[in-house]
Amino acid sequence: MEIPHLETRWDYRLRRESCLVNLYPHPTTLSKAYVDLVKAWGWKSFTIIYENNEGLVRLQELLKAHGPSEFPIAVRQLGESSDY
Q: Where is each Receptor ligand binding region domain found (predicted)?
């Protein structure tokens, strides 16, 4: 039918269809923006809190940006209940 379909959510599949436009930033781009913010704000340590593995995948560049001799990064997964 070629009806335009707009999405604003993260989709790991990165589908390439003629009538699909996803406005959510690519995970690598978004993660690099987080790296830039951490550097600009001069954070010496921080904690990454995520719900599921997809959330952690989105932050992969942020985790890779720091070597073992740099400041600590704590990574915590939220519990299965939705009461945070």
A: 20-78
